[in-house]
Amino acid sequence: MWGDFLRILVFSDSHGNVSALRRALAAQPQASHVFFLGDCLRDIEAVEPDFPNRIFHKVSGNCDFGALNPGTAMENLNGTLIFYSHGHPYYVKQSYVPFLQAAEKRGAKIALFGHTHSSLIRYENGVWLVNPGSVSSPREGKPSYAVIDIEENGIMPIIVNSL
């Protein structure tokens, strides 16, 4: 049954900045699910115990050598399919089109990716493409993460510039 909304947080490319993850998690107490899109899985694993009421979903990135986490995964939250990956297997630095096509093929309504260190929100072919940017080392602008509210009547993603 639907409540008011389901809020998720999306992080990528923390590259050692555990304090940025911790601050963002503390700033978003309504978020029940956290997606980490790779590159320094040990960072999100370090903060997980501090937020026991959150559900963490993680994939490995190109800098997560030896990680046992998958590189790509799917979740179904309140009937909304979410496809997520660090993005490097889909060459997202060149084009997000192969990643979008993979999401469409799986029936996803939300497709999350990182790797580029540049934030992006785009709605295309019925899929919300969301890249949270980097919580520690953005290509341009300020460090960032994404917040996505999933409601009965729609999906609302935003980029939040972190401190």
Features:
3 helices; 5-stranded mixed sheet; 163 residues; 17% helix; 10 strands
What does this structure look like?
The protein has 163 residues and is α/β, with parallel strands linked by helices. The chain has 3 helices and 10 strands; from the N terminus they run E-H-E-H-E-E-E-H-E-E-E-E-E. It starts with 5 loop residues before the first strand and ends with a strand. Strand 4 (72-77) and strand 5 form a beta hairpin. It has helices spanning 18-27, 41-47, 97-106, and strands spanning 6-11, 31-36, 55-58, 72-77, 80-85, 110-113, 119-124, 127-132, 144-151, 154-161. The protein has a 5-stranded mixed β-sheet, covered by helices on one side. A 5-stranded mixed β-sheet has the order 4-5-6-8-7, with helices on one face.
**Mean pLDDT across residues:** 93
Roughly what percent helix? 10-25%
Pattern of helices and strands: EHEHEEEHEEEEE
User: Which descriptor suits the 3D outline?
Assistant: globular
User: Which structural class do you get from the secondary structure elements?
Assistant: alpha/beta
Radius of gyration: 14 Å
Give the topology, please.
Layout: E1 6-11, H1 18-27, E2 31-36, H2 41-47, E3 55-58, E4 72-77, E5 80-85, H3 97-106, E6 110-113, E7 119-124, E8 127-132, E9 144-151, E10 154-161
Parallel strand pairs: 1-2, 2-3, 5-6, 6-8
Antiparallel strand pairs: 1-9, 4-5, 7-8, 9-10
Brief overview, please?
This protein has 163 residues and is an alpha/beta fold.
